[in-house]
Structure formats: C-alpha cells, structure tokens
C-alpha cells in the first residue's frame, strides 16, 4: 500500500491532538523501522484512548478531506507488532461501530477488506493464533462484509472461509470467539458458491450442535447461529441436505419448545430465527413435503393462534402465515376445465393464434403439480462475479420495455392501404360533402326529430303485455329486415323507435307476464297491496325473456298477465290455475328463483277480461316498478326490454337483470374508501388454512354450476341461490364451503382460459342480519384496489322497490391475496404454475329473502348503450347535427355503432357550409375491454354533454366534429368477458394489424382514422377511454419521444429530439378543471409492449400527436375534491363532461386568435427534466408511488423462492407488472 500523507480539511483544526498523533504515525510507517515498534505501539494506544473518550476525534479522523483512515490501514498493513496490530484493530472497530455505514464504505474503498483478510491469513499461521486478534478481526469483517459486494469472492480467494470454519469447529465451547466467527460465516453464506462449499464441509450439521431446546444461557450465540443457518439454507443444496437429515421436525420441535417456555416473550428474535430457517428450507419441494409430513401446518397454526392476542408477536405470526401459505398444497380449480364454459366457433382460426393453442392442449392440461425445479441433483457452483453491476442490471431491466430506437419512436404516417380501398369509408363522412340544400333553417325542426318522451306519471309503471293496445301497436310496427355489416343508407337524425327492430329478432317476444301460483294466493288471501311484497319476501323472481325455443318447454304452463285496466292502485296481477313446472320442484309450489316476474313465453294467451278472470281465483297484487324513467332521462325500462330482444349472446341469454331493467340513480351520500382493519388479510388466510386442518368442517356443496347446462341452479333449501345467466353476467360456479361462506369461480373470457376479474351475479334466499362471506377464488391480477379501500357494488331489489334503485358500495373485511389454487405451466402459457388470487368480502343483508346483485364495477351493458343512444337521438335539438351509423357487425352479430356529432351550420351560405365542413375532428372510443365499465360511464357523460343545449356544448359542437365509437367490444360486454372479444384476444393489442374477420370493430375503426389521414383531415385529438384497477384517480397515457428517451440510457441531445410539447396541454387543462384528474399519474412513455395499442398506433401511424388513453380508477381518488371517496357514476359522467370542457379550452388556447404562448398550460423542458419520474414497473412510469405501505406486512405471494418472499414482504405496496402490462 502506498504510504499515506496526512491531509486536513479546512474544517479540522491543524493543531488537533489526534491529527498530530496520526502525523507521527505516518512518519513511522514511512521509515518502517523495527526499532520504532514501541513508539508505534505508544502512538496507537493514545489514538485509541482519544477515540474512546472523545466523540469529536472520530469525526476528525473521518472528516471530508482527512486521510486518517488511510494512515490506520497503512499501519495495520506494515506493522509486525502484535500490540500495535491489536490497537489498530480496536481503533477500526471503534470507527465502524457507531454510525459506521459511511465509514465502512470509506474503509472498503481504501482496500481495507483485502488488508484485513491478508492479516487473518498471516495471523492463523501463529501457533496457537492469538484469540483476541481473531476476535477483533472477525468483529470488523462481520461489519465490513455486507458493505463490500466482492466480499465473498475475496474471502474465498484468500482462504478465509476455511480459516473461520476451522476456528468454529475447534472452539465450540469458546463462545467469545465463535460468536464473531459465526457472524462472518453468515456473511460468507450470502454468496451462493460459498454457501454450497460450507454445506459440503458440514456446517449445517455443525449449526445443529449449537442450536437446542429452550435455555436462558448463551441466547446471543443462539440467535447468531440461527441467522447463520438461515443464510446457509437459502442454498437449495443445503436445504436438501437439511431435509435428508431430518432437520424440519427438529426445527418445529425447537420452535414449539421456545414458544411454550418463553411465556414473557423476551426471546422473540430467537423464535423468529427458527422460523427463518423453516421458511428457507420450505423454499424447496422436499422441504414443503417434509413440513406437511411433520404436521407443520397444525403446529404453526396452533402457535399462531396463541400469539394473536399479543401485538408484539405479529412478526412471528406473519412469518408463520407465509410458511403455511407456501406449504399449502397446490390445487387445481374445482372445474372440469379452466377454459370458458361457452364456446364460439370463429370464422377463421389462425394456426398460431391463441384459440388454436388453447383447444390443442391435452385434456390434463389443468392438472396442477409442483413444478419447481429444485430437485436437480447438482446446483450451479459458478458465481456471477459482477455484483458491482447489480444497479446497472436493475436499471436495464427497468428500461427493457421502453422503446429505445428513435427511428421507431418518430411517428411515421403509414396508411398501409391504398386510398381506393379506403374510399368505401367515405359514406361515414357525409358531413364533408353535405350542402343542406333540403333543409329550411328558418323553420322549426322539431318535426324532423324524435319527440322527447314525457316522464311517466308517478304511479306504478305497467309492464306492457300482448293484451295491451299500446304494446300491440308497437309490435305491429316491427319490420323484419336483415342487418348488413354496413348499412347502405343512414339517416340524418337519430334512429326512429322502430330502427332497433330492423335487426333480425332472436326472440319472438309477444308478451311480458307475471307468474303467480294460484294456490299460494288462495291460501294467504293477500290484499292487492300485499301480493308483491309477499312474493318478494318469499322468493324474489327475475326478469326473464323467453323466446320460441323456451316456449316449447313451457307449452304446458299457464301464465297470467298484467292486463287489467289502469287505475290509481296500479295494475292487477292475476294468478294462474296451475303452478309452473318449469321452475318448480313439485307441482303446486311457488316457482323457484330462476323463474321470472317478466317473461315472454311466446304462448298464445287469451287476454280479454272474461278469460283473464276465469283464470284467476283470489286477490290480485301490484307490481310497483320504481319510476327511474322520471329521474333518469336516458333510461326507459320498456325501451330497454326492446333493445335486449335484439342483443345476441353466445349463451343465448333469456333473462334480464333487475338493475339493468330498473336503472341506477346515483346515491346522494358520499361513499368513502373503506378503511382497512389491521390483520384482516391474516384472519382470512387462517380461515383458509383451517380448511386443510379441519377438513371435516367443510361442506363443499355445489349450489350453482354453469357446467351443468341442464340445471345450473341447485337449490337445496338451505343455501343461497346464485345466477349469472343474463347480459354481462359472470359467475361460473358457487360452492357452499361453510355455513355462511361461499367460494365463487369466474368464467374465463370466451375462447380463452384466463382473464378472470369481472363479476356480475345475483344472490337470493338470504337471511337478514347475518354476515355472509364471499370468496372469488380465481382472479389473476397480482394486486388490486380491493386492498386499498375499494368495495364491490351491490344492488338490492327490495331497496329498488322502496324507491332507492341504486348500486351502492358494500362489503367489509375486504382483501385480495394469493391463494392455493393454481394452473399448470402449459395452461399458463409457459410460465411456472401460476397461482390465482382471492377477492374476499363480507356482506350483511338488510332484508330477508331479498334479491341482490353484486358487480366488480357499475354494470353498463350493450343493451343499455343502445337504449341511451336511441334516447339521445330522439331528444336532440335542431341545432345539433347527429348521426348514428352501424360501422360493422361483430363476430357475434351485434352492431358496432359510430356517432357523428357537431353543430348544424347557421345557414346555407357558402361561408357557413365551409366552416361546417372544415371543423377539426375529435375521435373518441371506449369499452375495448368489457370489464372496464367505468369507461362507458365516462363516455355517457361525454355524450350527454355533447347533446345538451347549454351554450358551452353548442360552442364545442361549433368547434369540432366528433366521431365516436362508444363501444369497441360489444360481444365481450354482452357475454361477461373481462378483457377479450369472442376471438379470445385483447382487441387493444390488435391495432397494428387487425384482422377484418376476427377483429372487425378495430379493423373498421382504424380504417376510419386512415381515411381521415388520407384526405388530410387527421384528427386533432384521439382518446380511448379505459379503466384502471391498480391506481386511483383519472389520468392519461400519451406518447412522447423525449420523455421516452429520458427514461433510457440512450444518448440523444435535445436538438435531435425536437418535439412540440402540445401533447401535455390537454392533460394539464384537465388537471385544472376536473376534480378527479391527476396530472402526476400521467405518463407519456412509449413502451414496446404497448406498440399495438390504439394510443401508440394512432400516434405513430395516423400521425395524431394528441393520442391518449384516459384511464379512470375503479376505486376512488386520493387527491383533490374527491380525496378519500370511492368513485361513482356521477363522478365518472362528470369526468366525461369535463373532458369536453377541456377540448373547448384547448380550442381557445390553440386558436390563432387565442394565446400565442400558453405557458401556464405547456410544460417547459426543464420542468419535465426536474420531475422525479419514478419507475414502478417495467412498463408504467408515474411520478409517485401507487400506494403507501400497510402496517400489516403480510406476504401477498405464495412463491417458493426467497426473492419473491423478500420483494413481496410488504406486498400491499408492491407494484404489479401484470396489470401494468395489461393497462391501456
């Protein structure tokens, strides 16, 4: 080592005593005189005394600019005097003992590790070696090792590992010596090669000679020994060796002994150390098997239950929980196959496509086995010697998904299709050629538009039947006509009331009737006002739409209908003379839930008063349908029924859910995010573990199963009844597991074997005041806003009939965690057996025998969209130019609508017509992902604003032409999918090369954009509405070259990346005017995994700079006006309206007459660079953490490797890559 020269900083007095001594010591080192050994001994003794008595001395020696550390290390390297060496080691020990992190780093950087290891190597040659020297050397090495990334390699090359190991073997009774030696062995073991080497030399067995039953003696030594053993057991080779020697039952016995003896909990660290060893040994399959065979589940469960009352023991409980979850045997889902219950035959099945792969899998693909590769006989004993490159590698991993090729980042307008081919889309843009010669701008246009329907009177709404004159007239106006993929002619105004009937009716619905058992009415002699209440209390029935196919099965059933004369008391409900055997288990009994209050059997029934009265014997009831039509101007139950009749589903649904029929009125009260109770997840996990330990207490009774197509509803009279056979419904199976607990399994997306998250189902037959627990056990995302205050939604029919038709947030004890169900690597697409996750929530029903619906988010069905569009079109004013065209038909035969909205010109003069035609385009789309229903509610808010008569709306229409595709994936929405269309693919990953046969909605929507680009009318803004399940607030994803490059290590100067910052203008505006919008959550990075999404393709290929995905939270907000509140339909619709206001302000800012330099909206480059953009996953970049950590640090994973355990130890705030990959 080069001889150091003492240097002082200006902040250190030059006359400092310690610096003087160090200067003298430096001279001795330079002379290297043997005769000065006494002097060196004397000086180092004085320095040691000063350090031990004066804290400022330590600061002076390690101050910035001081070379005191180098002088001490130089002395240690050059001296041959034992006492001088000891003094120097004492000095180093003092320097690194208190607040020594930075000082240790200095020591390592000065070559201190190598000097210490060389000293150890030379000192061991003495016979016998100096015990004090060995103790001090190992004490310092134990502190230095964790800070030196090359420590393991250096120790192995210097032979230090064997030296330390031999010291331990030879001095098992010398606790003073072996304590620091064990600490160093623990550091050695952090290197995998060293750990294997130590295991081969018998260190694992050696540790068990020190570890033993409870004893108050040598607890410090026992704690260090356990930590060393845990470090060794991270090696799979050592773990297998420990299992082979029966260490698992030994560790369990020791842990149980310490638990029973440590009644005052003074030795929690030792108990935690034992659990650490068990945790590492169970990272391998053999360890988990040995744990189960040793009854470890019961042992840890019972001990954990004893520890629950003591909060200080939570670390033990959490570690025990992690071990038990990891060792819980992996099971396959209790379904015949994880593929969807429903199958749709595609017109084209690409050989390499996902559908072909799924249906080519062997039958046993769903079988779950422990697929860990930890049973290999050998373990790699080569070490990656680039530890110092870890940070760089991590950064590369983070940036791996970012597009780094600047040529790919630069937008390239590429139509990829000849203009002649695109000309067929000209008919969707008649506004570009419209001359309005046939319109009289001075006359009233009310006759040209559909009149606005008047609100219903505040009396019970009558369900129309075939016997009513009004219904008969409606039916007589129906026209049967084949719906073409693209209609040849479209109308200027909204479709007439009969336009929705222009599609081929799937169901011959002639009447809507209410069934009622005659015997029950006679027996109870109910008054008319009590009839419905009694029926609901006994067994609520469902809306049902039955076509001709159903009528064949019901031809022997007699139905009564609501056809009495109108009166203030409502309409009469007649009773049939026979019970309906279709829904009844025995004749004469009330139809089971699954029959329908509104059914269309297609059976001819005489509706005159005489025949009706002849069928009834007894009092008649009243159906008081809540008057949502009066409160919701876009909702009409009668119209909804009409739209449902022409909605085509793969399961051929014949039922309508009550919430979709009644409608939803947003509650007036605030719904706060649910405060998570401490320990709720742990409690749920313990209850799951009880199933394995106390298996005899589990009912395991199937009560609903779509795989049993003949009779999915299994009613035993004791369990809840479930149903999901209606539009957008999704629950595949319900299992009654405990008295008030049910496991629910979701159906996969059609033609897929995954994407389980969306649920929408019905429950009936409940008791009031009893907490029911529901577990949805096959979710796939690795985290959810259910862990951060989000609640499921519930709709009560009893509440609706009482005048409160609304979805409300509900549920307590909510959490989302990984469970023990899994699928094989083949079914998981090549990954190791992928685990599922559980959403669990508890609900206490207010009403007995109610009918309640539960949903992931506020449902918005395709039929609801059709109803809303028809109502909007019928109510628009003459000042609005509104068109509704059918862009194409979906695979399932449903129409994909495209809307055109702008302002009519003021007159037919040339200037007005030119201004009309030359307005810039705004292109909007939504609902490409069926499970993101919030996107439709935002779109509803946008459409209502655009169609309103406010001056601001009129100004917006005069500024732009809006092209809107409100639902890109109707089939997925109808059939209850979460992510895919009937092709089994995520449509938002098909924009680069959409297939016209498999992805018609994407193909034709992209074609509309390509046509606009071809005629030099590229939209000013494109925005695709989405929902986000992992983040709060509303935010945007955009596209920026600069911001993408700034996230990488690619060197590019600002002059090479000239870019207009206008892409940030609209998000900035929204952050100022929309309470739910959060600018800091926005990202403008282009990722490789998103290159085929609408946002990126429209930006790159169409050339739309302001191309966005607008993500709305499924949970709520953590900033602004709505902070701490869950988001509702009112706030979502408001966001849609605020988006329109933002576009209007954008127009004013970018107008030639507006501000030339709107600096308060455009971010400067310096502001962007200063933003602390933080990478939270390989694919999503936000400006702050998604969520704060929970106090309850329970592992949400059940992975069998240590890295997963460490990374997800506080997994409440661990970001999830899966959702981020699936976002957009």
Question: What features would you describe in this structure?
Answer:
By secondary structure, the protein is of the alpha+beta class. 38% of the residues lie in helices and 10% in strands. The protein contains 47 helices and 22 strands. The strands form five sheets. It has a seven-stranded mixed β-sheet, sandwiched between helices. Strands 3-5-6-8-12-11 form a six-stranded mixed β-sheet, covered by helices on one side. A five-stranded antiparallel β-sheet has the order 4-7-13-9-10. β21 and β22 form a beta hairpin. α1 runs antiparallel to α2, α5 packs parallel to α8 (131-144) and α8 (131-144) runs parallel beside α11 (175-188). It is globular and about 115 Å long. The relative contact order is 0.08.
Task: Draw up the topology in text.
Layout: H1 17-31, H2 37-53, H3 55-62, H4 68-78, H5 82-97, H6 101-109, H7 112-123, H8 131-144, H9 151-157, H10 160-170, H11 175-188, H12 192-200, H13 203-210, H14 219-232, H15 236-244, H16 247-261, H17 268-281, H18 285-293, H19 296-307, H20 314-327, H21 354-359, H22 390-398, H23 406-409, H24 419-422, H25 469-476, H26 518-524, H27 528-539, E1 543-544, H28 548-553, H29 609-615, H30 628-631, H31 637-644, E2 655-656, H32 658-662, H33 680-693, E3 701-705, E4 721-723, E5 733-738, E6 741-745, E7 760-764, E8 771-779, E9 792-796, H34 797-801, E10 807-810, E11 812-823, E12 834-844, E13 851-855, H35 862-875, E14 880-889, E15 895-903, H36 910-917, E16 921-926, H37 934-946, H38 951-959, E17 961-965, H39 970-974, H40 1000-1014, E18 1021-1028, E19 1034-1037, H41 1041-1046, H42 1065-1073, H43 1094-1102, E20 1106-1113, H44 1129-1150, H45 1165-1170, E21 1174-1175, E22 1181-1182, H46 1202-1207, H47 1217-1222
Parallel strand pairs: 6-8, 16-17, 16-18, 18-20
Antiparallel strand pairs: 1-2, 3-5, 4-7, 5-6, 7-13, 8-12, 9-10, 9-13, 11-12, 14-15, 15-17, 19-20, 21-22
Pfam family, one: TPR_CCP1_N
Active site: 1111
InterPro entries: ARM-like (IPR011989), ARM-type_fold (IPR016024), CBPC1/4 (IPR033852), Cytosolic_carboxypeptidase (IPR050821), Pepdidase_M14_N (IPR040626), Peptidase_M14 (IPR000834)
